[in-house]
Amino acid sequence: MSFPLGLRLPVFAAPMFLVSGPELVIAASRAGIVGAFPNNNVRTSEEYGEWLGRIAEALGSHGQPGALPWAANLITHSTNTRLPTDLEQIARWRPPIVITSLGSPRPVMQTVRAYGGLVCADVTTLRLARKAAEAGVDGLVCVCSGAGGHTGQLSPFAFISAVRRFFTGTIIAGGGIADGWGIAGALAAGADFVYMGTRFLATTESLAAEGHKRMVVDCSADDLLISDAVTGTPASWLVPSLVQCGLDPAQLPDARQRVYDSGRSKETRRWKDVWSAGQGLGAIDGIVPVAQVVARLEEEWRAACARFAGLAASAAQA
């Protein structure tokens, strides 16, 4: 079976705050999936351009012969004062795919479409999915329950089914998917790709702190807490990281005002030592290279496909 964009597997290594950088993006795309990183992992638009340039030189920009697919993630919330200058860097380095999050995709559409790139919008509700579809995006990233970071609340089966009723574009489903069996399940439910963040957090190319990587390896879904106290938007947090920061998981502060300004220094940002993960962390048993993770995902995917084929054959004979 062949996948769109010439991929080995229909997987995006989801952009993760303080985790995804050029090394992870390049390794993911070279391994046969789509690598991505968020603009708020650097302090300035100039640094953002440097990262985009490093990736583009390694993988190619949109329209270049032999370019590998990769994605840039942009926060389009109204509080992100850096968006106009970040868009200038997008226009310069032309990532093949741009994923918007925490705001409308409309501010990036003209810039990305001008060079022929694809725009996908990160959405957590049906209301947001409809608005993004109306804006004319090429794809919707349906962030479902079980996702790390800013998580959704809908089951992936319900979300994908509902979106398919009004959207004919590409659907990328994320939330607790961490193995090849989950990839097969998402595609069987109607998705075109899956979004995996946590599965790539504990890799050697990840920018995550070693303590964060080790905590993901050591913890299970029982060690997660969903709260809006950290960023103002519900997100999934590792309880041990809350405790090590001196916080009582049972009595977290009231939700803070939502501010997603990429220009704020990540060294002075509150909560930078509170670590996130999704419900798929139980599939992670070591800190390994991205290429090794992708190889294991492919083995699991093929096993899942073989199981489907066996079930279909049995049904045909019944």
TrEMBL record:
Task: Cite the EC number.
Answer: 1.13.12.16
Keywords of this entry: Flavoprotein, FMN, Monooxygenase, Oxidoreductase
Q: Where is the signal peptide?
A: none
Uppermost EC category = oxidoreductase
| Matching Pfam families | NMO
InterPro entries under this entry? Answer: Aldolase_TIM, NMO
* Molecular functions per Gene Ontology: nitronate monooxygenase activity
Family (UniProt): Belongs to the nitronate monooxygenase family. NMO class I subfamily.
Query: Which protein are we looking at?
Result: Nitronate monooxygenase
Q: Which organism is it from?
A: Pigmentiphaga humi
Q: What is the lineage of its organism?
A: Bacteria, Pseudomonadati, Pseudomonadota, Betaproteobacteria, Burkholderiales
